[in-house]
């Protein structure tokens, strides 16, 4: 998880460098194209089944995922890195709401309290109604909302298909879906921009692979705090490489969101262990 976090932090830095000369749509396309090239040997070696009966669901999942990616990349390219990354941590809060509306999960008082606390952190960062408020922060929040919807869709797809199958079809749809908008703003990258684009694809794909494997072998409640190491990494990079100031409101809001997410992850892990030891097979459980 720590390696995954560092990969994602490096991806944010390379996106910022690429955004100096290239539009967001084009950066997203190259991130996906390079990612697919990196993944193909791994997927072929794993001999994962590419058969699926859920192609329409994959298309919808990929389209929403592209929307999330474009919003996220734009935020990284135009907002202070620390603010863009901090707002991305609100995704688990929106996942809770989406799980209630989409999957019919029951969320009880303590988890709702944690979610509300997390949104207080979001408000501290965004600061609506003040001179520091920017509409760009709403784009970063839109990325978090769309990412939460994608998380629910992946949960549904994983009930039928293997993880490698999900990854394969996601990238297979992502490449053409991101290529179409890129055509309208296309400009050939300069030599240094090629380096940032390739590194963006490698870091993003490497981060995803490490993240999924960390969640497979580790406890979510223990891994979630590690993922927040991305914030100091990008904050220091923003200060040293892009002359950005570390905003105390962003740090305060990020800490509040971190506390809320850590509690939610801990409760989920406790309830999962409890249901495995006491609940009958196939029984549903409420989420507190």
Automatic annotation (TrEMBL):
Transmembrane feature ranges: 28-46, 58-77, 83-103, 112-130, 136-154, 166-186, 192-211, 223-242, 248-265
PANTHER family from the UniProt entry: ACYL-MALONYL CONDENSING ENZYME-RELATED, SOLUTE CARRIER FAMILY 35 MEMBER G1
Record-linked SUPFAM superfamilies: Multidrug resistance efflux transporter EmrE
Location relative to the cell: Membrane
Organism annotation: Cognatilysobacter lacus
A Pfam family matched in the record: EamA
Keyword set, alphabetical order: Membrane, Transmembrane, Transmembrane helix
InterPro entries from the UniProt entry: EamA_dom (IPR000620), EmrE-like (IPR037185)
Superkingdom of the organism of origin: Bacteria
GO CC, any one term: membrane
Protein name: DMT family transporter
